């Protein structure tokens, strides 16, 4: 690992009972990178993210975050360490307002003035969310909920933001908008690991990528090189 390695995953294996979902993968995310993790349904992408967040215990291998094993981090403490996930399905609190949802991302913080600044910054990134700050989050459109989920994650000042299928269930035009936002967040210096079904868009947005197939990493390269790789094109890019 180099000096600016933020996350290092070594020979990670994860099983659900007899089902081997992740079969010994290695991956790395450097400070400031946007890394895409692509692959077919059931390849083990979500399982990998859940394991990184301590929601699933690995059967073998090691996860190093800022050069320290995550094995001892308590489930509720990941966010405090800067490991934050926007889950598949967004995990919005539908009966709370938009602003209450955003503040949930900072519930553990006591720096009120900085929090107010961060809230302003989130509203600048997502003007559409700002317009609806008093609205019950459950009444938002899918795209708006995705924005709130990302805003809530940013409120916890992530060092590494894990995004699970941000485009899921959204109309193409909204997907474009969400990816524009991902680019903006990356431009602010937030390091991200992005799991995405839409492999083409993910690789067009990311710096580097990993391809997973049946629990293994089959390709890893610069995003541009993966986009140009014929095997990746045939299997994942519909070309
Ligand atoms: P998708 O894009 O469909 O979410 P994925 O690449 O994220 O796919 P995972 O959700 O990680 O894949 O699933 C990997 C494998 O593990 C699949 O075979 C899945 O059926 C299995 N699996 C996932 N969660 C569980 C669970 N809680 N119990 C048992 N098997 C599981």
Automatic annotation (TrEMBL):
Please list the GO terms describing molecular function: ATP binding; ATP hydrolysis activity; branched-chain amino acid transmembrane transporter activity
Write out the GO biological process terms.
Answer: L-amino acid transport
Keywords from the UniProt entry: Amino-acid transport, ATP-binding, Cell membrane, Membrane, Nucleotide-binding, Transport
Signal peptide region = none
Q: Any keyword Hydrolase?
A: no
Q: SUPFAM superfamilies attached here?
A: P-loop containing nucleoside triphosphate hydrolases
Give the protein's recorded name. ABC transporter ATP-binding protein
């Amino acid at each position: 690992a180099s000096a600016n390695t933020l996350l290092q995953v070594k020979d990670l294996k994860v099983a659900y009972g007899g089902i081997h979902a992740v079969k010994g993968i290695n991956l790395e995310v450097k400070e400031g990178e946007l890394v895409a993790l692509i692959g077919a349904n059931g390849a083990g992408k979500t399982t990998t993210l859940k394991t990184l967040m301590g929601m699933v215990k690995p059967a073998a291998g090691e996860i190093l975050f800022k050069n320290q094993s995550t094995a001892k981090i308590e489930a509720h403490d990941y966010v405090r360490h800067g490991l934050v996930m926007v889950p598949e399905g967004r995990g919005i609190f539908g009966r709370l307002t938009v602003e209450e949802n955003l503040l949930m991302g900072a519930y553990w913080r006591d720096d009120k003035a900085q929090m107010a600044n961060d809230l302003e910054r989130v509203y600048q990134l997502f003007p559409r969310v700002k317009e609806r700050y008093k609205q019950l989050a459950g009444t938002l459109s899918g795209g708006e909920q995705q924005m709130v989920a990302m805003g809530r994650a940013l409120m916890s000042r992530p060092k590494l933001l894990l995004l699970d299928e941000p485009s899921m269930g959204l109309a193409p035009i909204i997907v474009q908008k969400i990816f524009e936002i991902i680019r903006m967040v990356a431009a602010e210096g937030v390091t991200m690991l992005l799991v995405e079904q839409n492999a083409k868009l993910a690789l067009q947005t990311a710096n580097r990528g990993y391809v997973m197939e049946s629990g293994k990493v089959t390709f890893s390269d610069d995003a541009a090189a993966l986009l140009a790789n014929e095997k990746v094109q045939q299997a994942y890019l519909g070309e």
